[in-house]
Amino acid sequence: MTSTPLRFRPLLKQTIWGGRRLGEMLHKPIGDADDYAESWEIVDHGDDQSVVTDGEMAGQSLGELFANRREWLMGKDWVEANPNANTFPLLLKFLDCNRVLSVQVHPDDAYGATMQPPDLGKTEAWVILHSEPDSVIYSGLKAGVDRESLREMMLAGETDRALHSYHPEVGDCVFIPAGTVHALGGGLVVAEIQQSSNTTFRLFDWNRVDASGKSRPLHIESSLEVSDYERGPVEPIRKPIHSGTETLVECDKFVLRRVHGSDQTIAGDDRCHLLTVISGEATLSGENGPTKLATGESVLLPAACDQMDLQAGESTVLWMSPPTSI
């Protein structure tokens, strides 16, 4: 057994919709750049690999640990329940959205398995860390929108008419199961936990064109095929932040909890756990001494970890793990 949390070097992604808040709010090493859009904190997906920064596992990627030390990392029950898994199942990231993102939908696992190359489906959840007064989230289709009406709006360049939208508040959680049409608006910073997948279909890009007058391609037929027309409008999970531990999302892909202003016992249960500090500082205490975590820092506790104590003080920590029922 080991009680040493795994720290990883974040993978920073630059795009035209990024900004500076990953550095200013979450202390990511972006230097003078003003176009960093994503910080992938814990990932094992193809060439995108988290690499351990210190300790006896230093230099090893998460993919290598999953391949070579799977039971140590994931736990016996998870390995027995997922004999064909070939990747760490979850991906943790931060996003800084300086402008509205394209409208997307993700397929489920069954559809992902038919793609070339095959991939997992993508169920995800967001926790809002920053929201401007005019920020908007688009989540789910308006009541009454079916496949044919969505097709008509897509072809007319009016997909926005089909989308349910609202202004998000800091602390909101938004659960986006596979098949849910969605988009993050401008002025938002979010923490996201998702399946380790890159299966995304674009329905709408707000009729934007590049300097040469070209628009990005849309995936009309694939989007129509995988969209969930029964889910309807998706409202935020809006719970006041209070001292203690609360479960925000519990689904068949992950459990997402929020710990604020209290202590919590974690690990020692033959299950891996992911932690990220979204405000303040926290400390993990185990047999090998304390591990201090500042705002924006994330760690993975392998299933082989002994029980540890999380002291959150007045801080807020997101705590994620594979589903409780395997």
From TrEMBL:
Residue limits of the Mannose-6-phosphate isomerase cupin domain?
Answer: 247-311
Q: Which InterPro entries match?
A: Carb_Metab_Reg_Kinase/Isom (IPR051804), Man6P_isomerase_Firm_short (IPR014628), MPI_cupin_dom (IPR049071), PMI_typeI_cat (IPR046457), RmlC-like_jellyroll (IPR014710), RmlC_Cupin_sf (IPR011051)
Q: How is the cofactor bound?
A: Binds 1 zinc ion per subunit.
From the UniProt annotation, give the residues forming the signal peptide. none
Annotated GO molecular function terms are:
mannose-6-phosphate isomerase activity; zinc ion binding
Q: Which residues bind Zn(2+)?
A: 106, 124, 182
The chain positions of domain Phosphomannose isomerase type I catalytic read 8-114
What processes does the entry annotate via GO biological process terms? carbohydrate metabolic process
Instruction: Please provide the record's keywords in A-Z order.
Output: Isomerase, Metal-binding, Zinc
The lineage's top-level taxon is: Bacteria
Q: Does the keyword Transcription apply?
A: no
Name its co-factor(s): Zn(2+)
Q: Which residues form the active site?
A: 202
For this entry, the protein name equals Phosphohexomutase
Task: List the gene name.
Answer: pmi
